[in-house]
Amino acid sequence: MLNLPRWQTIVIIAITVLSGLFALPNLLPASALDVLPGWYAQSRINLGLDLRGGAHFLLEVDLRSVLNERLTNLSDSVRADLRKQQVGFKDVNVEAGRAVVVTLRDEAQRAKAIEGIRALDPSLAVSGAGDTIRIAYSEQELFRRKREVIDQSIEILRRRVDETGTIEPTIVRQGDERILLQVPGIKDTSDLKRKINQTAKLAFHLVNEDVAAAGQNIPAALPPTTYLVPTREGMQDLRRANPTAFEEIQSANPRLTPEQICRRYQPQCLPVLKRVVVGGEDLDDSRATFEQQQGGRPIISFTFNSVGGRAFCAATRANIGKRLAIQLDGEIISAPVVQSAICGGSGIITGSFTTQQTQEQALLLRSGALPATLTIIEERTVGADLGADAIRAGTIAALLGTALVAVFMLVAYGPVFGGFANLAMLVNLLMVFAGMSILGASLTLPGIAGLVLTVGMAVDSNVLIYERVREEKALGRSAFSSIATGYERAMSAIIDANLTTLIAAVLLFGFGSGPIRGFATTLSLGLLTSMFSSTIFTRMVLSVWVRWRRPTELVI
Q1: Which end of the chain is more exposed for a tag (fewer CB within 10 A), N or C?
Q2: pLDDT for the residue 364
């Protein structure tokens, strides 16, 4: 078992050398990295929030508004279905956050109405008494939809943050309605907060021309299929004329609906039909560009997928001569008149944009719309100085721990076997650094603790092997036989010990978050690399040493 074929020796040496090469950028000063190729110099371990500094946000997801929106859409569907079945009704109302209530004209049609409503969505809980029908989502469906909204919000946040160039953001669920966002290396959080605060919900609605004809004299009672939405120009005028009112709108919690803004502050608004002609979910791509005419003003070009392209083509063909309002985040940014059918699957969005605004909006649209509004309820900034102190303390602890372990191995097992164990420990550290660099993993303060732990794990296997070698030597075996038998008999215990610890580390990584995952990452890599360094690398080194020195007696 001790003698290795030449090809195995070459492979072990090659792995060790490559590990050193990939780990080297992490050990060199910044001045030395400048002369290295860019792709090689950038293959370094990322520092987490606690070491590098950065931003920490706790976000609350407005699930209630999502439910209200779905109930509003459901009420429109119910209204259309009842008309289709020729079931007379007095009213269809939405109880905010609860249910849709239908009041029938004839109680005798209740069974027919309930049957049709249940066919719309099997997950609906429909009940009725007298001339009233109550429609709500079941508890199981509400729970499923809440998880769906949270998961979708996390995914879209990840796309937005990743496109900013930041490295390894931590975005995890926190409780039932909250999301934890940590972005290392960021100093100015204003840009990030803009991306958080905007849902980037794009929708195309037809303008209700009958109501719009009244101008600013909009009636108090609108048709149930119509609601008011402020225009972007109207909101800009309100900001200039009444900054206090504008700040009230921005800081309102819960956030005001577009119609509430129109009724309360009376900016320029347009009445639009609730039915969405085409939604932002059908967008395939969006880019910031400049219009060839009109002085090269900044615009947003967009492309629909096949489904959205067909829907947009059909909608524009059927509504030539009517205004199509483009609504983005509760504001109408444009309401052009449809001149002809638009069937190319692409279009542009114009408005009073700056170049920076078009770039930001294009990014948000490309990343996808948030299904719900996110509110920042906790914000912290970790300074780089604090991270530097943590790095310094962690480095001292790691070096001190490594030095003490090295001294112990030299004293306990002599300069030869102790020296080989220490060499394996250094190889293990290099392999951990190389693995984290290749994977692009982040090193956190708990990760440093996991790194120190792997130092002990790296020599633990050597301790098991050397004690077996001592036992074989005590039995009077030769040097070569003692070493070979020691490795053979210790392998099962080493594999079992490392495997059980690795299972725990994998579970920590899978179910943990933030610092816990950082600890699990370094521990998992350390366990895998220690198996290589302590059992394979040291065996190769001892094999070479035995063939070279041919010892008759072991000093161990």
Answers
A1: N
A2: 66
